[in-house]
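Session log. Operator J.P. requested a structure for one protein chain; no other inputs attached. Running the standard single-chain path with token output.
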Amino acid sequence: MFKIRELMTSPVYSLRETDTLQNARALMDQKRIRHVPITSGDDTFRGLLTNRDVLANTISHLAGIDPDTQNEIDAGIPLKEIMRTDVRTVSSEDTVKEAAFILYRNKYGCLPVVDDGKLVGIVTEADFLRLTVQLLEAMDQAETN
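Structure written below.
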């Protein structure tokens, strides 16, 4: 059976719970990601920050806040205050099928991969789309042979 360790992204971009919203926004913009696992100093998984969480904690541009002021505000918000802590995770030994069902049933965008409390990777919708494309290409090749 296909295991999560074979599909997950690892190493994963993550931040510490003492980092700020400014750090999270910069990482998400720079790496073009929508989910950032949050860890303690020893890589123990603590929570998750999503693009929606960032948007929910941003003052609307309609309020007339300039980018410098928004950055100052963001720099004062530690991630431990806004991260999600009720996050469903999977282990690297779980099956891809199990993880797919969890994502699909719950409409999650990602699942942090945690082994013995430590963050070891992440599996996202994009990983499953990549897998789907690979399977479809393999089917196409099988049909032409």
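Operator note: The mean pLDDT is 91.
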